[in-house]
Amino acid sequence: MKFEELPTPCYVIDEALLERNLQILNGVMQRTGCKIVLAQKAFSMSYYYPLIGEYLSGTTASGLFEARLGYEEMGKENHVFAPAYREDEIDEIISICDHIIFNSFSQLEKFKHKALQAGKKVGLRINPQCSTQVGHEIYDPCTPGSRFGALADDFRPELLEGVTGLHFHTLCQQNSDDLDTTLRAVEEKFAQWLPQMEWINFGGGHHITREDYDIPLLESCIKRMQENYGLKVYLEPGEAVALNAGYFVASVLDTHQNGMEIAILDTSATCHMPDVLEMPYRPPLFGSGEAGEKPFTYRLAGQTCLTGDVIGDYSFDEPLKCGDRLVFGDMAIYTMVKTTTFNGMPLPAIAVKEKNGDCKVVREFGYENFKTRLA
Question: What sequence ranges are listed for the domain Orn/DAP/Arg decarboxylase 2 C-terminal (predicted)?
Answer without folding.
Answer: 10-331
